[in-house]
Amino acid sequence: MTPRPEGREHVGVLRNAWYQEEIPVVVLEPSETSAGVVLWLSPLGKAALYLPDGSLRPAVRQLLAGGQTVLGVDLFLQGEFLADGQPVKETRRVKNPREAAAYTFGYNHSLFAQRVHDVLSSLALAQTLAPGKPVRLIALAGAGPWAAATLAVAPGAFEAAALDTAGFRFGSVLDLRSPDFLPGGAKYADLPGMLALGLAPAVGPGRRVSGPASPAAPRGRAVRSAAYPPPARG
Known about the structure:
With 234 residues, the chain is α/β, with parallel strands linked by helices. 22% of the residues lie in helices and 20% in strands. The protein is built from five helices and eight strands, in the order ββββαβααβαβαβ. The protein has an eight-stranded mixed beta sheet, with helices on both faces. The longest helix has 19 residues, at 111-129. The chain is globular and about 55 Å long. The two termini are 19 Å apart.
C-alpha cells in the first residue's frame, strides 16, 4: 500500500483461480470510506490512470474526492503483459499455410474475447472492494467495444456506464489478425447489438448509461485458451 494525497494506492495482481490466470491491477482508494467502485478501462491499461509524471489524472482525482474507489487493470496483452510496452497490432495464429479464420478461431478464443473475459474477472474483484456499494464502468479512448461486450454478457452488473466506442464496428475489421477481430461480431447486429443486449435490461430506475448508442456478439463464455498462455510478468 502506498499513501497518496488523494488516498491509498494498492498495486498487485488479480488471480482467477478457476482459469489459473493473473491480471495486473491497481486499486486506488479514497481517504474516506468508499461509496462505490469505478472500473476504468483503456487501451493503455492501468497506466491510463496516471499522467506522464506519475500523478493521477484529474478525472481520477475527482472520482477519489467523490468517495469512489478506482480499479485499473491491464487486460490480456496490455501493459505489464508487453515486454516492449508497444500495443499488439497482430494476434497469433496456428501454424497453417492457409489464412483462414477457422484454423485459429475454431479452436481458440480471439484476443477481443479474452480481454472481455478479463473485464469480467475485474468486475468480480470490483464487487468485493466495496461490498454492497454500486460498481460503475468507464471505458474511454476506444475501450468502449470491450465494455459493450461485457454489458451484453453481464447485463445489470454495473450501476452506470460511460462508453466511448469511437464509432467502432466489427464489420469494419478486415484483418483476421486484428486485435479487434471477433468471429460473429458483425453477423449478430454488430456493436449496436451488444449494447442492446447489455443496456436494455439495465436501463431503468437507478441505472443509466452515457455515450454513443452503438451496440456485439452472441452471449457466450470468453475464456483464455492454450493458444494464448499468459506471458511471464516482470
